[in-house]
Amino acid sequence: METAVTPPPDRRFAVSLFSRLRTAKGQANPFPIYAELRSRGSVVAAPWGGHLVTEFDLCDRILRSRDWLEPDARWREQQGDGTRWTAPSSREMSRTLPALNPPEHTWVRRSAGMFDRTSLQEISGTVGRTTTRLLDTLGERLRDGEADFNALVSEELPIATIGYWLGLPTADFPRLRELTHDQVFTQELLPSASQLAMSDAATAELRAYFMELVRHRRAHPGEDPVSRWIATWDTMESDQDKADEAVYFLALFVLLAALETTSTLLSTMTLLLLEHPRQWDWLTVHPDMVPGAVEESLRYDPPTHVISRVSSRDCVLGGVEIPKDHMVHLMVGAAQRDPAKHEDPELFNLHRKPAHLAFSGGIHYCLGAPLARLEAQTLLRQLVGRFPGLTLVRRPTWAPRVAFRRPLNLDVALI
């Protein structure tokens, strides 16, 4: 039985740390700040309440344990009106798969039934063809000088892939991508009032879009996932309106999960390799190491830097007393550079044995992980084969976020 031994927390340190993380410099390179956070212990008090967890093994244990829950609708309601947890967008997210706890999580996840081996085989051809087309466009731009890899490739491949799978009109892709970028603010660690307002508006528009899609697919069913979800939920829910809403929440979850983090992975992976030219050159000669490069990118700078959980009972974590219903923030970006887990964690090393938490863990392990890996590996194989002379023109700027990383540009050229 773990015993509480930690001295009273120094919240002033955490306030200073997060003030720095929220600056442009901190968002561009949060890792020195994370190192300071780790130096204060494996569990550190957060300035707004709750605690920050930086040790890899502790984060891994929490993600795999049934004693730690998602901040679900019940928990969010308990936080009271006027908090970020009761904003309309937050209430909506509390009904999507990632925010559910058992038993509801169990049967909703089973109803999704996606991205098995057969599904991935069906999608792989689309991913390959789309990647080729996007890199053709990149090549044309590079002949004239520099090009924004982020805009031309990383932002386009995920929406084309998931849009094709869901059967969405290609004309809708740009707007859906914009809405996703705005909606994700409600999932941020410390969203501002203006960011929450943007997320609320985006969420409302996404609800209207996907509810109309569900109604159309009910009237005109096909062989697409939305039609299959409707058929599945009709056997699980006798109320058609409730069944349609359940399908809407699945479609919303799939879009948000497939776009934001995957586009960040594609850009960050490319950025890291171009920042480490020896690794890039080695990969152009040894493309069989592409899977290792993807996994090391996910460890070194994951798309999601923070995952939050709530304690289901009073407990002691890392020597700190944690009351029931208390939130902890797993600082994944810091934990994946924990020297107790990885030797030379600051070294970007394609030969490292994969071990990361980028796709969460336990019952909430990311359903879209196989698809994200497929897109990243397909892109990287074609990229190193077609553009071995690719080089970074300038460091990107980053979106004003802490939990969800997103480069706003990635300017490249050929040498």
Summarize the structure.
By secondary structure, the protein is an alpha+beta fold. 55% of the residues lie in helices and 8% in strands. It has 18 helices and 10 strands.
Task: Looking at this protein, list some descriptive labels.
single chain; 415 residues; 3-stranded antiparallel beta sheet; 18 helices; 8% strand
Please describe what this structure looks like.
α14 crosses α16. The protein is built from 18 helices and ten strands. The longest helix has about 35 residues, at about 240-275. The strands form three sheets. Strands 1-2-8-5-3 form a five-stranded mixed β-sheet. It has a three-stranded antiparallel β-sheet with strand order 4-10-9. Helices cover about 55% and strands about 10% of the residues. A hairpin with a 2-residue loop joins β6 (about 315) and β7. The model has no long low-confidence stretch (mean pLDDT about 95). The chain has about 425 residues and is an alpha+beta fold. The termini are far apart. The protein has helices at about 10-20, 25-30, 30-40, 55-65, 75-80, 90-95, 105-110, 115-145, 150-155, 155-165, 175-185, 195-220, 225-235, 240-275, 275-285, 290-300, 330-335, 370-385; strands spanning about 45, 50-55, 70, 145-150, 305-310, 315, 320, 325-330, 390, 410-415. It is globular, with a radius of gyration of 21 Å.
- The share of residues in helices is 40-55%
Distance between the termini: 59 Å
- Listing every helix as H and every strand as E from the N terminus to the C terminus, the arrangement reads HHHEEHEHHHHEHHHHHHHHEEEEHHEE
Mean pLDDT: 93
Strand tally is 10
Strand content: 5-15%
* Secondary-structure content class: alpha+beta
* Rough outline: globular
User: Spans with pLDDT under 50 lasting ≥5 residues?
Assistant: none
Quaternary form: single chain
If helices are DSSP runs of H or I spanning 4 or more residues, what is the number of helices?
18
Strand ordering within the main sheet: 1-2-8-5-3
**Main beta sheet strand tally, sense and closure:** 5 strands, mixed
Rounded radius of gyration (Å): 21 Å
